[in-house]
Each structure stands twice: as structure tokens, then as C-alpha cells.
Amino acid sequence: MRKDVMTPPIELPSPPPGPDERPWKDRAGLLEERARVMGALARWYLAPHRALLLWLSTLVFALGWSLAVSGFQFLVKGEIIEHVLGVIFLGLALGATVPSSLGVASGIRRDVFVGACLRDWAELERDPQTLPHWRVSGGALLWLGPSIVLTCLGLALGGFAVFADIGTESFGTVVGIGIVFAVAGALGMAKAIDYYRLVSRELRPDTGVPDGYGRDACAPDAPGPGSPYDDGFCDDGFCSD
């Protein structure tokens, strides 16, 4: 991850320093800083208010989609009153869909950066003893549970629209809302699963084989070649920018 391309959200720690900028004198210092930084990042990553904002934006976008479909249906009817109503509905639809979609896009961009930063810090080392210092108890479950429900609801709505005879006018509304719900649920599930992978990686014993993030696990009690530390910290344990 290039630090000169992406900037962390305000008041959040930056990505880990490069190999030539390591401030830690020993492994204990690294583990302490790693736990502190990952705690701040994880709390932001899984903050409950961010989940509420995602679900609220999803509902607002779904409402905007319903208004947009109704507006187009009014416009094609050919009557003056219907045309006026169509324009009004389309204006309301823009007012609902544009801000909500921009908010979701901004949240996704920040989540991608913070998630990558979390993985970079996690790859520096592996220490189950410091896991309680950065683990967010119940945070991932708060994201995962409602996201599964939202995804299932979206798929159910899509299936209902396809297999039930609901009429052409309602088909677009139901399918669109189903897609919106399914996508929002998938985003929440992806975040929760990404965090669970970090936790499981921390608890998995070192085996000397590549882990799930593509790095060779390095045994804490076996110093690597060229390591500046005398406590068994492997020099290869740092990931590059």
C-alpha cells in the first residue's frame, strides 16, 4: 500500500513504516505499538455508527429507487398531470439516491484503506497475547448478523419478483430494492469476514508456510538472517509498502 497515494481518515494511525523507517528497538516495542494501532483501526473499522449509516443509506437509496420508477411510469402515461408528478418524483429520487450513493462510496473508499492498513499492521508480526488489546468484542457480529439478514431479504425480493406474477409496473421496483439490499448486505459481510480472518490469523500457530495474506510465517523464536534484534524477531516479519 502506497502511503503517498492514500491518506488515512482523520485521527487514525498511518500505515506501518517502511523497512528503513522502523522505530522499534526490540520485538516488545513492536508488539506494543502494533496492538495500540490495530486497536484504533479496528474500533473505527467496526464502529456501530458506521453500520447504522450504511443501513440508513441503503433504505434512503431504496426509497429513491422506488420514487424514480414511479416517476418514469408517470412520464410515459402521456397526461400533463402525470408528467408533472413524474418530474416531481424524479426530483425527489435524485435527492435521495445521489447523497446516499455518495455517502456509501465514500465509506467504501475509507473502509478499503483502513482494512488494508489493518492487514499491513497484522502482517508485521503475530502475537495471540496482545489480541485482547485490539480485538473488538462483538463488533464483527454486529456487522455480520444484520448483513446476512439484509442479503437474504434482498435475494428473497429478487426471487419473488422473478417467479411471482407481480406485474410489470412493480417488477422494476421490487428487483431494484432487492439488488440494493443484497449489495449492502454483501458489503457488511465482507467487512466482518475480513476482520474474522485477522483474528483467526492471530490465533493460528506459526508453521513456516505462507499464511492467508501471502507472507511466510516466521517463527518468533528463530531470528532471521540480518535481523537487528537479539530477541528472535525475524527481519522478514515486516511487510513492505
Structure explained in plain terms:
The protein has about 240 residues and is mainly α. It is about 65% helix and about 0% strand. Helix 2 packs antiparallel against helix 6 (about 170-205). It is elongated and about 75 Å long. The N and C termini lie close together (about 5 Å).
Briefly characterize the structure.
The protein has 241 residues and is mainly alpha-helical.
Largest sheet: none
Average residue pLDDT: 81
Please tally the β strands and state the result: 0
Estimate the helix proportion, in percent: 55-70%
- Ends distance: 5 Å
Principal-axes geometry comes out as: elongated
Q: In percent, how much strand structure appears in the residues?
A: under 5%
Q: Could you name the key traits of this structure?
A:
disordered C terminus, 241 residues, 64% helix, disordered N terminus, mainly alpha
